[in-house]
Amino acid sequence: MQQLLSPLMLKGLERRLSELRPDVIVSAHPLLNYVTVAALRRLARPVPFLVVVTDLISAHHSWFTEGATAYVVPTEETRQLYLARGLDPERVHLLGMPIHPRFTLPVASREELRAQLGLEPERPVVLLVGGGEGSGGLRTAVEAISQARLPVQLLVVTGRNRHLYAQLQKEQKKWQVPAKIMGFVTNMPELMHAADVIVTKAGPGTICEALACNLPIILSGYVPGQEEGNVTFVERNGVGVLARKPQQLVKALQELLEPGSTLLQQRIENAKRLSRPQAAFDIARLILSYLPPPGQPGPWEERQAVAQVATAKVKGK
């Protein structure tokens, strides 16, 4: 697909790069890598090109486009995929997934956060997230938890799905568990730090944000092919399970929150081990290391200077 689209994009990208004259290029999307490498070759500019991979295990083949200066990977599993393709290990940097610093910076205590959110201080909190656009599966999950009368309280985030939000608000009075229903939120770090467990789709960003908050994970679904590796990552490393059916979700919560069980603490410890909360800062430092030193010509000025010298020599003959 990228080779079919590249001819359509190449000239436009060349023109844009010539206008912007970047000192470093960073890609966080696999389908842009091939055309970027091709454009830089055609322009004959030594601009450092860094690829930041956002797949946890089963990386899209376009991530492996040859010709990038360096590759930043989130997990050891992804690093091994690159090494298996013969890439120089020094060009493959295991730094983690970049997430917003708010997930890693100190926040209020769990008790304070729960008080701010109007939650009971001791009752376990289950955070159910349907993504930015919301998911109809949230309704089924909430109904299953309610019918099982689990001793929990719920934080339900419907995102931009206003219909789902209104529907849940209407049905809430029938539920057997206390719940707070929210639409699109900007305080997800606080919600995660207030919770005991998160129920979410298998998006890599949310998974890594949960790990940074030391939050056990229950995956409610995944995009076939694209996110299957994320499920493997969560289960293999002991930070959560896949529970696609309502009864599986109820069972997973019962096992995790059972009084006297050590499972919850085990998953918290595993999340701490896996988390790379400083990944965004480490990646930023790597990017900055490729900038030209102060006073030194950049990748665009260097060629211009060479051309000027060559022109001067021709005129001097």
Structural features, described:
By secondary structure, the protein is of the alpha/beta class. The chain folds into 2 domains: 2-97 and 278-312, no CATH class; 101-274, Rossmann fold, CATH 3.40.50. Helix content is 46%, strand content 13%. It is built from 13 helices and 10 strands. The strands form 2 sheets. A 6-stranded parallel beta sheet has the order 7-6-5-8-9-10, sandwiched between helices. A 4-stranded parallel beta sheet has the order 1-2-3-4, with helices on one face. Helix 9 links the parallel strand 9 (217-221) and strand 10 (240-242). Helix 1 (2-20) crosses helix 2 (33-43) and helix 5 crosses helix 10 (246-257). The radius of gyration is 24 Å and the shape is elongated. The protein starts with a helix and ends with a helix. The model is unreliable at 305-314 (pLDDT under 50). It comes from Thermogemmatispora argillosa. Belongs to the glycosyltransferase 28 family. It is found in: Membrane.
Which key features would you list for this structure?
317 residues, Rossmann fold, six-stranded parallel β-sheet, 13 helices, 13% strand, glycosyltransferase
Supply the helix-strand structural class.
alpha/beta
> Mean of residue pLDDT?
90
**Beta-strand segment tally:** 10
Name the poorly predicted regions: 305-314
Total DSSP helices: 13
Tell me the β content: 5-15%
Name of the CATH homologous superfamily of the largest domain: Glycogen Phosphorylase B
Major beta-sheet overview: 6 strands, parallel
Which fold name corresponds to the CATH topology of the largest domain? Rossmann fold
CATH class of the largest domain: Alpha Beta
Q: In angstroms, what separates the terminal alpha carbons? A: 51 Å
Q: What shape does the CA trace take?
A: elongated
- The count of domains is 2
Radius of gyration: 24 Å
Secondary-structure element order, as H and E?
HEHEEHEHEHEHEHEHEHEHHHH
Which architecture of the largest domain does the CATH hierarchy give at level 2? 3-Layer(aba) Sandwich
Strand order of the largest sheet: 7-6-5-8-9-10
What share of residues is helical? 40-55%
GO biological process, one term: glycolipid biosynthetic process
Pfam families: Glyco_tran_28_C, MGDG_synth
InterPro entries: Diacylglyc_glucosyltr_N, Glyco_trans_28_C, Glycosyltransf_28_UgtP
Domain Glycosyl transferase family 28 C-terminal: 126-273
